[in-house]
Write a structure and sequence with these properties.
Blueprint (H helix, E strand, L loop, with lengths): L43 E5 L25 H5 L5 E5 L16 E5 L6 H8 L5 E5 L2 E7 L8 E4 L12 H4 L1 H13 L12 E3 L3 E3 L4 E2 L3 E3 L5 E3 L4 E2 L4 E3 L2 E3 L4 E2 L4 E2 L3 E3 L4 E2 L2 E3 L2 E4 L2 E2 L4 E3 L2 E4 L2 E2 L4 E2 L10 E4 L4 E4 L7 E3 L4 E2 L4 E2 L3 E3 L4 E2 L8 E2 L3 E4 L2 E4 L2 H14 L6 H13 L8
Parallel strand pairs: 1-2, 1-3, 4-6, 7-10, 8-11, 9-12, 10-13, 11-14, 12-15, 13-16, 14-17, 15-18, 16-19, 17-20, 18-21, 19-22, 20-23, 23-28, 24-29, 25-30, 28-31, 29-32, 31-33, 32-34
Antiparallel strand pairs: 3-5, 4-5, 26-27, 34-35
């Protein structure tokens, strides 16, 4: 038996090997310490952005940790395991997304989706150590954002990470299932009106949600309906599916699996395997598939996107990091739209289209499949969408949600406007 007296270390190392450690947690029996059980200190976690250009246009206006995949954002997923979670991102975003730095910090690559196995491994990381996987930085423990002179340890567990924008909708089904399990554990769903047809058992309804005369099929995955959300009459939903607080499915909506509506969205028509980050609308008929829509976007009536090429070839997407079209390795890939962008009625988006921030698209025919930020126009050509007009529209849109388009939001869009000038051939 090992007798611990006086100052007790928070870790017992049973071997000289860095990869062979045993942690003692006060919540469980610790047979190695005999008389004492040890508690790991609460860790301050900071999710840091890396290679941000690879995630444009969605990362122009938010840290990577604020990407929504499944029901929760990446940051919210980490908050299941740690009480203090903040982000390190670009300076122009830091007023809206501040970080909290302590004397001892666990810095984690923001693209990583947490798992129990990975969290267990991270808990064994000492100050001054780096966790890597196949040579790539996963996390490190240090007082500052600095990995120099730190000891590197190889990870022995598997985990998911967002390597490209398409991964958001590719992983969405299983992340809905994972988040559903977490959010509904030991909780009871609110009852549903008998006017609905329910298929399957994994359907959870939060307080204040309204659903009438609709079909909800959870046979192949769970369905989560957030607080004060509404599903109007005649809607047909197949899980896995999630809609967050105050979102609305319009009458007769047809929603296929692996789809997420963030908070305050309005969606109608046909949607398949797509993610709306929040505060965006596709309120009328039209098809959207294998797509990611940022915040404050609006798709006009009868907007459609192609998610499959006529020749069934792999889809290519514009990549800001390489500044060229890059193969996704996918047959099905639709539309990626940055925040504040909008399109008029009957807009048609080609397979694999990237729309930047605050673009306004309208007119007949297919616009090109890379539309720079702050572009105004369509197939006939684009002009520059001036900041003053962008601000005027954003102020009105925010007011509709009883929010204020403040100087912080203005400064972010102003910075993105400057960052993206060269894509518009603007001097």
């Amino acid at each position: 038996m090992i007798l611990l007296v006086g100052l007790i270390s928070s870790r017992i190392n049973t071997s000289n090997s860095q990869n062979n450690r045993i942690l003692i947690d006060s919540k469980k029996p610790a047979h190695l310490c005999g008389l004492f059980c040890l508690t790991l200190p609460a860790m301050n976690v900071i999710l840091f952005d890396n290679n941000r250009a690879n995630y444009y246009p969605l990362s122009f206006t938010r840290p990577i940790a604020y990407f929504r995949i499944g029901i929760l954002t990446i940051k919210e997923k980490w908050e299941q395991y740690y009480k203090s979670v903040s982000v390190k991102t670009e300076d122009y975003l830091s007023d809206k997304f501040p970080n909290k730095i302590a004397k001892d910090n666990l810095w984690i690559n923001a693209k990583i989706i947490p798992s129990k196995a990975l969290v267990t491994e991270l808990k064994s990381l000492r100050k001054g150590e780096v966790l890597s996987k196949k040579g790539e930085l996963i996390a490190f423990r240090n007082s500052t954002f600095n990995t120099k002179k730190l000891n590197t340890i190889d990870s022995n567990v598997t985990f998911d990470s967002i390597e490209k924008l398409c991964d958001i909708f590719m992983y969405n089904a299983r992340e809905i299932e994972s988040d559903f399990t977490y959010l509904t554990k030991k909780r009871n769903s609110k009852p549903l009106s008998e006017t609905n047809t329910l298929i399957g058992k994994n359907i959870f309804i939060e307080k204040g949600a309204k659903i009438s005369c609709s079909i909800l099929n959870a046979n192949k995955g769970p369905i989560y309906i957030g607080k004060n959300a509404e599903i109007m009459e005649g809607s047909i939903v197949r899980g896995p599916f999630a809609m967050l607080n105050n979102s609305v499915l319009k009458m007769g909506a047809k929603i296929y699996a692996a789809t997420t509506l963030g908070p305050h969205c309005k969606v109608g028509g046909e949607v398949n395997n797509s993610v709306f980050f929040g505060f965006s609308s596709k309120a009328h008929d039209g098809f959207l598939g294998n797509s990611v829509i940022g915040e404050w976007c609006n798709l006009g009536a009868d907007t459609n996107n192609s998610n499959l090429k006529n020749n069934y070839n792999e889809v290519k997407l514009w990549n800001y990091e390489t500044e060229r079209f890059k193969s996704t390795g996918l047959q099905f890939c639709g539309l990626i739209m940055g925040d504040h962008s909008k399109c008029g009625i009957n807009t048609m988006f080609n397979t694999g289209t990237i729309v930047g921030v605050s673009a306004n698209i309208f007119g007949s025919g297919f616009p090109r499949n890379f539309i720079p930020s702050f572009s105004w126009g369509g197939t006939a050509g684009f002009s520059v969408y001036k900041l003053s007009k962008v601000f005027d529209v954003a102020e009105k849109v925010f007011a509709r949600k009883k929010l204020t388009f403040d100087t912080i939001e203005q400064n972010i869009l102003s910075e993105v406007y400057t960052l993206t000038k060269r894509y518009r051939n603007e001097q």
